[in-house]
Amino acid sequence: MLLCDIGNTSYHFLDGDEDFKKCVKTFNPLEIKEQVCYISVNDKLQTQLEGLDNWINLAKSIDRTNYYDTMGIDRIFACEAVRHGIIIDAGSAITVDVMRNGVFEGGFIYPGIHAMMNSYSMISPSLNYSFNFEVNLDKMPKNSQDAISYGYFKTLYSEVISHNLPIVLTGGDGEKFTKIFPDATVDEMLIFNSMKKIIQKADIC
Amino acid sequence: MLLCDIGNTSYHFLDGDEDFKKCVKTFNPLEIKEQVCYISVNDKLQTQLEGLDNWINLAKSIDRTNYYDTMGIDRIFACEAVRHGIIIDAGSAITVDVMRNGVFEGGFIYPGIHAMMNSYSMISPSLNYSFNFEVNLDKMPKNSQDAISYGYFKTLYSEVISHNLPIVLTGGDGEKFTKIFPDATVDEMLIFNSMKKIIQKADIC
Fold first, then answer.
1. Nearest CA in chain B to A116
2. Residues A43, A59, A57, B151: is their CA dihedral positive or negative?
3. How many structural domains compose chain A?
């Protein structure tokens, strides 16, 4: 059995201990013959996946009443895995969700690295820089690259730490954000582990 | 004599007490026959404007040693007008600069409303919302529109208030941000007033 967490840009598979990604644009889910337990935030793939017998949508096995209607299923699965903490899932979007003593308090969405960099470069060619992950967040910047890096990272940082909760980093870019949140726990398998828990609980597969 | 603050998208003129804008893409500076004292962050217009005798670049009348080389001249003029405070200039980009007791401490750049909205909608069609300026910043959101609105506004807010300085709002979207920073002073004429001060000091025009 495979696990699969489908985002806007890629299928993220877990096969035993090994994880691998396939591009949403080019991968054909018919290629997989074995059973796949999946979650997906990608509406475009919904009809195709629903028509495949070996693709089992785990979204149906979760109690969504604790969350809100349009909340991405990946965020819900991440929250299900954390009893007390603030979860930063850094992918094409960065979702930040608060779980306090087992209760979902809400969450917000911030652009991912690529989207935000694009946003600056579209404003002006003079803001077309890569982010500096080593930027000093304790000092106001005095050069353009640091000015956009601080604008992206420090604003997120200031808001996240204001919640005074343990920080859990996950997602494809989770590791990169340890530079910004040095005290965070990184758990790249957070969603897959949550999926395993739901599978066991619901006795699926 | 006219004053003009040129950005990436428009020429912002002040004629006596009246201000008006012209689009960078369509306006021809040759149309103006009288003297114009200007500042510009738009590199593309530099050669043309330098060639016009009646367009006087005020950037040359300022001591830039207090600032940094690639800092936009509009930010420098805004800082010259504030002795002690944090200046939020909300246009196509949002620049945030700290002046403490007359000294420039540095600043950062954050995407403007249009650029940030674009950034969310490019990540996924499911994030294609307008920002809700009425979003409650004291409570974590539980719907998608508020999740992106909070992601944009509250991160900026948390960082800005952490500096514990009087807040000055300016720029084309300055008024809109009073919803987010209700205690801020709005000064839409900040840069023009700063230009007037420099003109007097340098005895130009």
1. B119
2. positive
3. 2
- Convert the pLDDT of each residue in A48-65 to its tens digit: 999 999 999 999 999 999
Same domain, A116 and A43: no
Compute the nearest-CA separation of A90 from chain B (Å).
13
Which residue of A lies nearest to B140 if distances are taken between CA atoms?
A106
Residue A68 lies in a domain: no
- List, in order, residues 6 or more apart from B90 with CB less than 8 Å away: B112, B113, B169, B170, B171, B172, B173, B174, B176, B177
Structure confidence by residue, pLDDT tens digits, A96-135: 999 999 999 999 999 999 999 999 999 988 899 999 999 9
Enter the ipTM.
0.89
Helices B190-202, B73-80: inter-axial angle, 10-degree rounding? 80
Give the pLDDT confidence score for residue A74 in this predicted structure: 93
Give me the domain span that covers residue B181.
64-190
**Whole-angstrom Cα distance, residue A178 to residue A176?**
6
- What per-residue confidence (pLDDT) applies to A27? 97
pTM listed for this prediction: 0.90
Q: How far is B205 from chain A (nearest CA, A)?
A: 30
**A183 and A87 inside one domain:** yes
* pLDDT band for position B205 (cuts 50, 70, 90): low
Nearest CA distance, B113 vs chain A (angstrom): 10
So what's the pLDDT on residue A205? 58
pLDDT value of residue A51: 95
Pairs across A and B, CB distance < 8 A: 147
Q: Choose the closest CB to B148 out of A106, A109, A150.
A: A109
Q: B110, B148, B152: which to substitute to probe chain A, counting the most A Cβ within 10 Å?
A: B110
B187 in active site: no
Contact B115 A122 (CB under 8 A): yes
- Cβ neighbours of A92 in B, within 8 Å: 123-124
Altogether, the residues listed in chain B come to a count of: 205
**C-alpha torsion sign, points B173, B171, B86, B189:** negative
CATH number at residue B28: 3.30.420.40
